[in-house]
Fold:
Amino acid sequence: MFKSIKPSISSTSLSTPLLSSATTTTSSDSDETPTNSNRFQDIPQPLPNTPTTSYKSLAVLSVHAGTVSSLAVSGEFLLSASQGKDIIVWQQPDLRIFAKFGHGGGGAVKALVTLGNKVFTAHQDSRVRVWRISRSSENVFKLVDTLPTTKDYLGNCLLQKNYVQTRRHHRRLWIEHADSISCLAFRNGLIYSGSWDKTLKVWRIGDLKCLESIKAHDDAINGLVASKGVVFSASADGKIKVWGLANRSHSLMGILEGHRDASFNAVVVSEDGRWVYGGGSDGYLMGWKGNAGFDSWRLVCEVSGHKMAVLCMCLRGDILCSGSADKSVGVWKRELGGGVFRIGVIRGHEGPIKCLQVSPNSVGGGFMLYSGSLDKSLRVWWVPKYDDKTGDISTVLSTGKSSNVLC
Structure:
């Protein structure tokens, strides 16, 4: 049993309850660019920015020992992971600590995703760890496996052909990552892990077996997202690659090029998989529209969004949020043609914004936004609905009265 831990919270309590709805934040060695990958034309000019609004945080949670590196929403729970190895489960709407675990795992936590009663965490020591709620106590999470599993390792270690060259004088099994795992995604019974070792690995959730290891990029993989059977990987090599699943293996379907000498740190995709947005180290937001076969893409958005690097992004319907090293979060409205324009700016963190997550449920006409930072804090914001007719960020609260966001 975990003892009750009282977090450091500054601000008023959240008065509007969130509804429970389970969600989570995502072998072919081909590295050739398809002839129809991304030849862009007819790029629309970005719309002028509307007057922006600043927000005040509803809560500031300062409990983590290190940088808040990853966030996930699962039903009534919010999970936050830290470079200090700790993972905290917060119960909404009052944001009390439900459980705290992860100290036994090796290396800083870089990413996490939730699936049912399991939590998958990616670590700096190049391992993925699997945690499950204890049967004896619902607020205790136990480590149940590590990827690659012992069974998978023993099944591969005896054959020399299963070893690959990772760097000079170093060899590893193909099922092992050779460097820090930076991102995770899941889709249709598969877990995907992206690493600084430039590879994308595919794991089967049922038996946690590694199915594929793809030499995906020429530099570190920083972001992953999966949708409609397609996986998008964002890399420090300045490319977002599109991977499709066919005949039980993944193949390259397209390459989305960023700016020269700029890396992609984050990638998000719309629910239908047709719109993809990437955040770059030069502060730009770029977006593409794909065709029905996901094998042809057109650039539709190219906006200078931040003064410093974009480190994270999240998408909820037609609202895109971008977190930056400039310590701000940009709130953007997505247009029908795929372009975006800024409708708000969130400030308050004392360090770069490392991760963002949104609640899938509407609250008072808007939604809850969670941000984690290098300042070791987790902040909670309420983002109101954008009024397309007036161009204002306003909403009607439960009292029935119109209210603008506090500045």
Notes: The chain has one domain: 43-404. The chain has one helix and 34 strands. Residues 150-156 form the longest helix (7 residues).
